[in-house]
Design brief:
heterotrimer, A alpha/beta, B mainly alpha, C mainly alpha, A: alpha/beta, Rossmann fold, 35% helix, globular, C: mainly alpha, 3 helices, 72% helix
Chain lengths: 272, 254, 65
């Protein structure tokens, strides 16, 4: 498996604050790569440097074997980029915008036409012809994906694509990302861990500009086997009795937790 | 080249749909009508007014009065409106974050500058020519045009100064990323040039001459040699400042 | 009367342009709910202030949404 993206010893500071501190990792082809970290951990900075929008202080980034240099955007022909809150020209219609993007990347007219129709269908915007200015956030996000995939990039970089959305919108976006993974490697930054578990097969955890953890989900789960387990009983079970039985057999639980209905599940049930 | 045409087309769509084109055409059309109107009205109003019982008799208006008004209107309020309309040309893209998508799609940064300059320059040219044509129409209809000197140079100078203003707005927007920054840089440059004009020696090299003394050129009070150095300097400034904008923009972190 | 006739070639285009700008601004104001700066009442009033009002609305007040 070849690496679509490699990052070597990357460093970046804004003023005195070091945001990225000797970061090294690589993303193999065909994966959905979860890039996890708290807000301000340096995820966006790393992505913007990969796109040549920010200058790195030191270190090297290569995309499909080509080195990224700041200000030049040659490597961007391999990349599709989706922002957390993508902004478009509000006075344009979705098809006009995709057409502009297609002409900028140098696709043939016939290709732009077929790709835009295909992608607008994929993201559920087919037949929507109103101006982008009146779009909801979810719709903008979906148009963002269509725009990012237009030139059939080898690498799709998504910066917190779900964090500005409601649960329904999040689910839709994750579903679309899952669908494109056969054709494109996806890097997906987020601070929402449950999103990562839903679709990623590899992760890297970023903390204070350094790599805290990385590997495939299976590897990590195997390596960091939990010391314990959780047993869940249904609502009718008498808690005291269960604890009593455990105590009789000299089994001492470290903690007891009452399982609550998750609000997310409730929300989904009510909405859908 | 294709990306340049595509982005220039986008600029035109933007100017059309955000009403900038409409505003500029309407305002300059208005100045085109107003200039001969004011020229014609002023002597008549003065005659009918009669301040303090003294009857003031001004000579009948001439074609030249119409051109005086034309250069005054276009050179002052006209350029101000042009500046206000195009002050957001760069800053709107920065403040809304709309450049990120197109740049990551592989659009060259200098193409952004050249496309914006092309669209703004063409719109300015259209507005200016419209204004000129309308004033010309009224002026030949009402007056005898008489002998005008250095016609091309007089009208070209005003257009060239407008172009310099557009370039200054783009540079200001690129440097400061804000609407105000763009306006202040262009305004500051015009003020500085106007102050420099106090020294008579500098006048013929100073681009600000191009939007101030045009009627003197038409009447033949001033010669082409009083304007040509300023024209050359202005063209040089347009080229240099556009290059500076490209270089600055290439290094901007977005 | 004579005077007005004399100035008719100026007045007609002036009125058409000014009215055109005001109407264009008013249509935009009433077909949009949000403004970048100011509110509906302010812009409706201002769009009757000739030339400068509609220009200000389209440059400062108009919103894409």
């Amino acid at each position: 498996m070849t690496d679509v993206l490699t990052i070597q010893n990357l460093t970046k500071s804004f003023g005195k604050e070091t945001v990225i501190d000797g970061l090294t990792f690589s993303v193999p082809e065909g994966s959905i790569f979860g890039f996890i970290g708290k807000n301000g951990a340096g995820k966006t900075t790393t992505m913007k440097m990969t796109l040549g929008l920010l200058a790195a202080d030191s270190g090297e980034i290569t995309v499909c074997g080509e080195r990224v240099s700041f200000g030049q955007t040659a490597t961007n022909r391999h990349i599709g980029y989706l922002l957390d809150v993508p902004e478009f020209y509000g006075y344009m219609r979705p098809k006009e915008y995709l057409w502009l993007c297609g002409e900028i990347t140098g696709l043939e007219n016939a290709k732009i036409k077929s790709r835009s129709e295909e992608l607008l269908k994929l993201v559920g915007l087919a037949g929507i012809n109103k101006k982008i200015g009146s779009f909801s956030r979810g719709m903008k996000q979906r148009l963002g994906i269509a725009q990012a995939l237009l030139n059939e990039p080898k690498l799709l970089i998504c910066d917190e694509p779900t964090s500005a959305l409601d649960p329904v919108g999040r689910k839709e976006i994750l579903e679309i990302l899952r669908q494109v993974k056969d054709k494109t490697t996806v890097i997906f930054s987020t601070h929402i861990i449950s999103d990562v578990e839903r679709i990623c097969d590899r992760i890297a955890v970023l903390d204070k500009g350094r790599l805290a953890l990385s590997g495939t989900i299976a590897e990590l789960k195997a390596k960091h086997k939990s010391g314990g387990f959780t047993a869940t009983f249904d609502a009718g079970t008498d808690k005291e009795r269960v604890l009593g039985v455990l105590a009789e057999n000299h089994l001492q639980p470290i903690g007891v937790e009452e399982t609550e209905q998750t609000i997310e599940n409730l929300f989904m049930e009510v909405i859908l | 080249m294709r990306a340049y045409l595509a982005f220039t087309k986008k600029e035109f769509i933007e100017n059309l749909r955000t009403y900038k084109l409409l505003i500029l055409l309407a305002v300059f059309l208005l100045f085109g009508v107003m200039s001969p109107l004011v020229a014609k009205l002023v002597p008549e109003i003065m005659q009918n007014l009669g301040i303090g019982g003294i009857k003031i008799t001004l000579p009948e208006a001439t074609a030249m009065d119409s051109w005086v008004q034309f250069f005054k209107n276009v050179g002052q309020i006209g350029l101000l409106v042009l500046a206000v309309v195009f002050a957001g040309i760069m800053s709107n893209e920065f403040s809304r974050g709309t450049l990120v998508n197109v740049l990551t799609k592989g659009l060259k940064r200098h193409t952004v500058i050249f496309s914006k300059l092309t669209a703004a320059a063409l719109i300015w040219t259209m507005s200016y020519l419209l204004c000129l044509a309308v004033t010309y129409g009224y002026t030949v209809y009402f007056w005898d045009m008489g002998e005008l000197q250095h016609v091309f140079l007089a009208f070209f100078s005003m257009w060239l100064f407008g172009l310099l203003l557009v370039v200054l707005l783009i540079l200001g927007g690129t440097l400061f990323k804000t609407f105000i920054g763009s306006l202040l840089l262009a305004g500051g440059a015009v003020v500085a040039m106007t102050l420099l004009n106090i020294s008579p020696k500098i006048q013929k090299y100073n681009p600000v001459t191009l939007c101030g003394d045009n009627t003197a050129l038409l009447t033949g009070v001033k010669n082409a040699s009083d304007f040509v150095p300023a024209v050359i300097i202005c063209i040089a400034l347009v080229v240099v400042l556009t290059t500076v904008s490209v270089v600055v923009f290439d290094r901007k972190q977005i | 009367m004579e005077i007005i006739r004399q100035y008719l070639p100026f007045l007609i285009p002036l009125i058409v342009i000014e009215l055109g700008l005001t109407v264009a601004a008013l249509i935009h104001i009433f077909t949009h709910k949000t403004y970048r700066k100011g509110n509906r009442v302010l812009w409706v009033v201002l769009s009757f202030v000739q030339i400068i009002g509609p220009v200000l609305y389209f440059v400062i007040g108009r919103s894409d949404e």
